[in-house]
Amino acid sequence: MSGPRGYEFWQETLKGARLTVAPMVDASELAWRLLSRRYGAELCYTPMLHAHVFVKDARYRRENLASCPEDRPLIVQFCANDPDIFVEACKLAAPHCDGVDLNLGCPQAIARKGHYGSFLQDEWDLVRTMIQRASSEVNIAVTAKIRVFEDLERTVQYACMLEKAGASLLTVHGRTREQKGPLTGLASWDHIKAVREAVKVPVLANGNIQYLDDVWRCLTFTGANGVMSAEGNLHNPALFTGTHPPVWQVALEYLHLVLQHPCPPSYARGHVFKLLHHCLCMPENFDIRHRLSKTSTAAEMVSVVEMLKERMEPYSNGECPWTPDPDSDQARLPFPPWLCQPYVRISPEQHLKKVQESQKRALEKAKLQKNPEGEGDVVEKEDSDTSKRPMDEETEDSDISKKKKKKMIRNPKKSFNPPGDQYEKCVCKNPKGGRCVYGLCRACCRVKCYTLALDCPGHRILVKTKREKAAIYYGQLKKEEEEKKLKEEDKEEKRQKVKNEQQDQMLNGEDAADQEVLMGGEENGGSDQEKNIQQRNRIPEGGEKVEVRETGTHSNYSTSINQQPGSDKCEGKDKDTNVEKSFNEEKGKGSESSSMLLAAQLTNGVDNDSEASLPTSLVDHQGDNTT
């Protein structure tokens, strides 16, 4: 994708950075990066992040991408062995940094187990694919940090392959993956120089950078575009300024940054231990060392540093003379122990020699234990330089290595020969718990307590107590459910009772209304409706009778006619009045045909016993013209 690459990336995005702080696990967090930038660092890396965890865990991303405007330019480093995961991690990190780096240099055992870092050196196809895809699919520059092969030519080929794959910058650590720990040794600047001359992308040199003079010597010898420092920066963050400030000054400055930008306490404690290393190795400061090891907050660490400052500042100000023991490590330091300075490892040759001497002493001790009768004999060795010392010079500490002797100097109470097994055995042959009420180890005690529902306060296994609490809890829960059910049943019963009462009231109300109507009719001579019915049912003079019977809300009308022969009394005013009054309660108008039908029925004779129901259309009829 588009974006600056190669030298354009180094000059524009990274501002031509030459002084770089290396990515360090649990060490190059935000607070330390800001401290290093105050003392001259121009480019910083985040700690190595696991790409797989970075993609899956949002909290891991949030904690490790913590930054601020002053923390730029910044490169995020990943360890990965899956192209898809690496590309996805780059996409997630791109908005928060200026570049993404692939770690191809970690030599630790965890990298071997996880199959990443320098243990991908022999899998060129996989490395090529990861860098190609990330550089082409993500709009951000991709860099790589590598270690060298013993073969210089193979190292150059490896670097050229990474350049062709799309790496915009290479950081070359001039050590092989076998050079680590006590076997670290010196980095090969010759390998770095060969890579710099072979590739056309910027190169940062890493290794042997402990003083500012080392920076300029490295740049001059290798021709690299910049240098990177790791361990030198940890012991003296002011390395790139060429100064050596007091350790408490730098430590307090760092801890104040930690208070502003929090980090795990183990990170901060590790930094303070490294800064104060030379002072804490002094026997008079062992108490401060022990107190520092017990701190868990930045505020507690500040108080410990203040204590060391109060104790060592008179030496720094010249108020007290500094006269170290000539045989002590502090006497061999290039600067007083209260000033920031690098930690120098012994050479691999010296380390191997110490290991061989320790092994020989252990072998001789084993032989003496097998042959106690030959205490006065001197065991001859093939090499005269490593012959065993006379027995009369043997002391209790003769078989202790120098490293153990140093530890004993720091802590005279420390013992490397613990006494024999003093613990009482459980039935399973493991040491039983000292406070176990059943005289068992924790595992056996747990099994017994769970099987027999017992408590063991000594092991804090409270099975019986927890089960009793659970029984009480579930009993209360069941009781609450039953009470809730009863309340619901009471509510339903009351609701039904209210409903029945309402229905009874409605029925009683209707009966009362009917009774009132009847009573009112008797007192007032009948209602209007009854009067109308009586009026409609009267017998006219001519012997004609019209009856109207009402049922419910609808009226059934029937007409009975008794007419004398030759009588015309049905015609005229009385007839019209009877018909009109029969429908005075109805609305609407009927059709003329219906009126004529009624008139015809009235005119023609109808038997007294016959009843004819009027058509429905007559209900709405208000006829004035009935014939």
**Gyration radius, rounded:** 54 Å
Query: Fraction of residues in helices?
Result: 40-55%
Strand order of the largest sheet: 1-2-4-5-6-7-8-9
Structural class: alpha/beta
Number of helices: 23
Strand content: 5-15%
Terminal CA distance reads 106 Å
> What is the overall shape?
extended
- Low-confidence residue ranges: 374-398, 539-595, 602-627
Largest sheet properties: 8 strands, parallel, barrel
> How many β-strand runs?
13
The residue-averaged pLDDT reads 81
Keywords: Flavoprotein, FMN, NAD, NADP, Oxidoreductase, tRNA processing
Protein name: tRNA-dihydrouridine(16/17) synthase [NAD(P)(+)]
Region (Disordered): 355-416, 482-627
Pfam families: Dus
Keyphrases for this structure?
627 residues; alpha/beta; two-stranded antiparallel sheet; 13 strands; 47% helix; extended
Structure notes:
This protein has 627 residues and is α/β, with parallel strands linked by helices. The chain is 47% helix and 9% strand. It contains 23 helices and 13 strands. The strands form 3 sheets. The chain has an 8-stranded parallel barrel with strand order 1-2-4-5-6-7-8-9, surrounded by 6 helices. A two-stranded antiparallel ribbon has the order 10-11. Strands 12-13 form a two-stranded antiparallel sheet. The radius of gyration is 54 Å and the shape is extended.
What's the topology here?
Elements: H1 6-13, E1 19-21, H2 30-38, E2 43-45, E3 49-50, H3 51-56, H4 58-64, E4 74-79, H5 83-93, E5 99-104, H6 109-114, H7 124-137, E6 142-147, H8 152-165, E7 170-173, H9 189-198, E8 203-206, H10 212-222, E9 226-229, H11 231-235, H12 247-260, H13 265-275, H14 277-280, H15 286-293, H16 298-317, H17 348-370, H18 402-410, H19 442-452, E10 455-456, E11 461-462, H20 463-523, H21 528-536, E12 545-551, E13 554-560, H22 573-582, H23 592-603
Parallel strand pairs: 1-2, 1-9, 2-4, 3-4, 4-5, 5-6, 6-7, 7-8, 8-9
Antiparallel strand pairs: 10-11, 12-13
Keywords: Flavoprotein, FMN, NAD, NADP, Oxidoreductase, tRNA processing
Biased composition (Basic and acidic residues): 355-392, 482-502, 528-552, 568-590
Region (Disordered): 355-416, 482-627
